[in-house]
Q: What sequence folds into this?
């Protein structure tokens, strides 16, 4: 389908992008365009103006600090997949980046666009939940920080308000001791039908706690709190321990359903992905 006519402005700075955004209630930010442009072509979203933020230096790149890593939201999935510092300090990020879609999508799509879009089948929400990320957002009225736990608020819905721009993603260091990501890909798109991210802390050989992020299964990515508590209560990584934890994790989940996976199959896939991720992390992570 042919897109409708729309104004296009390339922002020259974050304040410029924010000013443009505040002047036009129908304007939309454009990053990689891999979600927004298809939605426009299908007439599923409307905008009067596209504000291109993909090349803004303030929104690009990865910075390592003493106690955290900062990621610019316009950094592409491919940029995150191949960063040597991330592979060493936060290997969950390259693990996930490498299984997003295909090289074309990874070369254009951005982590910020994905997080703001909050697709229930996207990979990054599960990873940000598992890594306890903070989202820095700005508007013409100032800035604020939103934890990943509060960021994904519903189906295709993030906590970002109108006129706000995601400016930075902060992830605490040191990262978890052992991590794993397991994903059942939709055969056509590569999106997660179900996926589980696991981030565990160890002291000597004992798991002392951890975080779990699940995506694809429910209307938004989520953490299973009761299952996470079990990680700090003598979790041994044995088959029976993992099976019990996985059952607890999905006990109260309201699953999505579509032509590819009905609710029972989706829960089944979620359980299998979490089980495999826990085995990976507990035995090799
Ligand atoms: C064929 C295909 C397969 C895909 N497979 C996967 C997959 O396997 N896993 C996966 O996770 N994703 C997948 N995606 C989605 C892909 O990762 C997109 O790149 C991503 O969802 C959106 O990022 P973008 O940079 O393209 O954002 P855009 O399309 O440019 O923007 C998306 C939305 O976010 C807003 N936005 C963008 N940046 C900001 C910002 N900094 N602040 C505020 N708002 C912002 C835009 O205004 C828009 O509303 C797939 C996409 C396609 C087309």
A:
């Amino acid at each position: 389908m042919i897109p409708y006519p729309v104004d296009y402005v390339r922002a020259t700075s974050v304040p410029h992008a924010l000013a443009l955004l505040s002047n036009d209630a129908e304007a939309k930010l454009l990053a990689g365009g891999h979600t927004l442009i298809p939605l426009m072509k299908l007439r599923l979203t409307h905008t009067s103006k596209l504000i291109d933020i993909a090349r803004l230096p303030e929104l690009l790149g990865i910075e390592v600090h003493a106690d955290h890593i900062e990621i610019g939201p316009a950094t592409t999935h491919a940029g995150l997949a191949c960063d040597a510092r991330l592979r060493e300090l936060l290997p969950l990020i390259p693990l996930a980046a490498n299984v997003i879609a295909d090289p074309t999508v990874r070369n254009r799509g951005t982590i910020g666009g994905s997080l703001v879009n909050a697709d229930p089948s996207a990979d990054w929400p599960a990873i940000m939940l598992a890594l306890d990320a903070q989202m820095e957002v700005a508007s013409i009225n100032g800035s604020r920080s939103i934890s990943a736990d509060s960021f994904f608020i519903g189906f295709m819905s993030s906590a970002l308000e109108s006129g706000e721009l995601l400016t930075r993603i902060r992830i605490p260091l040191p990262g978890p001791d052992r991590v794993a990501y397991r994903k059942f890909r939709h055969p056509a798109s590569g999106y997660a039908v179900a996926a589980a991210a696991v981030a565990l802390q160890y002291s000597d050989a004992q798991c002392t706690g951890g975080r779990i992020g699940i995506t694809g299964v429910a209307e938004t990515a989520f953490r299973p709190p009761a299952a996470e508590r079990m990680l700090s209560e003598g979790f041994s990584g044995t088959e029976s321990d993992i099976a019990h934890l996985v059952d607890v994790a999905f006990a109260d989940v309201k699953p999505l359903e579509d032509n590819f996976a009905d609710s029972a199959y989706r829960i089944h896939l979620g359980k299998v992905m979490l089980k495999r991720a826990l085995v990976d992390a507990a035995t090799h992570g």
Observations:
- Residues 28-36, 53, 73, 100-101, 105, 109-110, 112-114, 116-117, 119, 122-124, 160, 165-166, 189-191 surround flavin-adenine dinucleotide (CB under 6 Å).
